[in-house]
Amino acid sequence: QLQASGGGLMQPGGSLRLSCVASGSIFRINVMGWYRQAPGNQREVVALINTGGGSTQYADSVKGRFTISRDNAKNTVFLQMNGLKPEDTAVYYCHAVLADGSGRYGNYWGQGTQVTVSS
């Protein structure tokens, strides 16, 4: 139900924008976020955004460089990544806490999109 896109290869200092669309029978989407997992590392939170979009949280490593936003009309969350560094290289996963058409809440993950930062 979550489909992420926008990853790719970028040089250090460059920018990428990730998108993640929630589809299917959706009653309500609460918090949405982006996580990443580099080879040999555990999955870590990158950024979170609340239902209304007015509250965001970021990992210290991306503060000031990444911006999370959402379009509730399109059930979409974005991650604008500027000033990319080689250490940002990872598979990025979107996540959402949402209620389906029956009103049942659950945790949903996207399939992951690879971001590689290299010269």
Q: What this model shows, in words?
A:
By secondary structure, this protein is mainly β. The chain is built from no helices and eleven strands. The strands form two sheets. Strands 2, 4, 5, 6, 9, 10 and 11 form a seven-stranded mixed beta sheet that branches. A four-stranded antiparallel beta sheet has the order 1-3-8-7, with no helix packed on it. The radius of gyration is 14 Å and the shape is elongated. The N and C termini lie far apart (34 Å).
Supply the helix-strand structural class.
mainly beta
Q: Return Rg in Å.
A: 14 Å
**Topology as a string of helices (H) and strands (E):** EEEEEEEEEEE
- Quaternary assembly: single chain
Low-confidence stretches: none
Number of DSSP helical runs: 0
Number of strands: 11
Overall mean pLDDT stands at 96
How would a textbook summarize the main sheet?
Answer: 7 strands, mixed
